[in-house]
Specification:
It contains four helices and seven strands; from the N terminus they run E-H-E-E-E-E-E-H-H-H-E. The protein is α+β, with helices and mostly antiparallel strands. A five-stranded antiparallel β-sheet has the order 2-3-4-5-6, sandwiched between helices. The chain has a two-stranded parallel ribbon with strand order 1-7. A hairpin with a 2-residue loop joins strand 4 and strand 5. The model has no long low-confidence stretch (mean pLDDT about 95).
């Protein structure tokens, strides 16, 4: 099942998501649907709040960038109840976009390394360190679970200049190839 992507202005994107248990209803199917939705929208990460569910779960698949960055090979994962334990390394400024902020891209500073504890789709516990592009994708999706959007990490003046485009997104006045919705 392909979910519509919840867009900027929807309250669910500003909530701190709740942890889940292995008994979460239809969890395996939900994870499959998350990947399907992400692929349909040409994304490389998708957090549950972006499909209207305020739970601590996100999926990533960076394998499409393998030619550009060989470290992205086999980088397809599910993160359940993740907790960032440490951010370090040098801050790196790179351009980011977000399925919930369609057709909007901005330069964002993020740590080059992240240490994270999470459960996979089988509720097996992991504690791992990721760096480079993997760290960036993880931090971006993790932010969604904390009610933070990438535009919260840009200078206030730049965000003010985007006000008109952000208002258009809340009114669904944006041309995208995937389903979007404003969720009250």
């Amino acid at each position: 099942m392909v979910y519509p992507i919840v867009v900027y202005g929807s309250p669910v994107l500003r909530m701190v998501a709740k942890e889940i248990t292995p008994e979460y209803p239809n969890l395996k199917q939900f994870i499959e649907d998350m990947f399907e939705t992400m692929y349909k929208a040409d994304g490389m990460g998708l957090a549950a709040p972006q499909v209207g569910k305020s739970i601590r779960l996100f999926v990533v698949d960076g394998t499409s960038l393998e030619e550009e960055d060989p470290a992205m090979k086999d980088f397809k994962k599910t993160f359940i109840n993740p907790k960032i334990l440490e951010l370090d390394g040098i801050p790196v400024l790179l351009n980011e976009g977000c399925l919930s902020l369609p057709r909007l891209r901005e330069d964002v500073d993020r740590s080059s390394r992240v240490k994270i504890r999470y459960y996979d789709e089988n509720f097996k516990l992991f504690e791992e360190v990721f760096d480079g592009l993997k760290a960036r994708v993880i931090q971006h999706e993790y932010d969604h679970l904390e009610g933070v959007l990438f535009i919260d990490r840009i200078p206030p003046l730049r965000k003010k200049l985007l006000k008109g485009r952000l208002n258009d997104i809340t009114k669904l006045k944006v041309d995208v190839s995937y389903k979007i919705k404003f969720q009250k």
